[in-house]
Amino acid sequence: GEATLVGSLDKDVIRRVIQGHIGEVKRCYETELEKNPNLAGRVMVRFTIDPSGKVTESAIQESSLNNPPSEGCIRDAVRTWIFPKPQGGKVVVSYPFVLASAPPEATPPAKSK
Questions:
Q1: Residues with Cβ < 8 Å from 57, sequence gap 6 or more?
Q2: Which SS3 state, helix, strand or coil, does residue 102 take?
Q3: Which of 98, 67, 74 is closest to 21 using CA atoms?
Q4: From residue 67, how far is each of 32, 47, 58, 70, 77 by CA, in Å?
Q5: How far is CA 39 from CA 9, 17, 25, 28, in A?
Q6: How far apart, in whole angstroms, are the C-alpha atoms of residue 91 and residue 63?
Q7: What is the chain's alpha carbon radius of gyration, rounded to the nearest angstrom?
Q8: Average pLDDT in the chain
Q9: Could you tell me the maximum CA-CA distance found in the chain, to the nearest angstrom?
Q10: pLDDT of residue 110
């Protein structure tokens, strides 16, 4: 997905930090996926990076996942992330996570002789 932001921190820098933490988001999703194998959707997280680079606020802006435990886990994980110090004050970011389980890989049919 594409991040939208208010403030001054390069989108590529934000994306790299998020990708470094993507395992945390996946764990939040996969924990609930075990309970509901059809769980899938898009979660837009809005968060604020303060001048020191810490996330001070994190909220679910919108979600089609409709799974409060997973959404809350993602929101809380984002709140622990550290970014490089932004230029000129705080930065507000909206970032979409698209969550879906991978279909099982098809096993090729056995070759007969």
A1: 47, 48, 79
A2: coil
A3: 74
A4: 8, 19, 17, 6, 16
A5: 33, 26, 14, 12
A6: 22
A7: 17
A8: 88
A9: 70
A10: 58
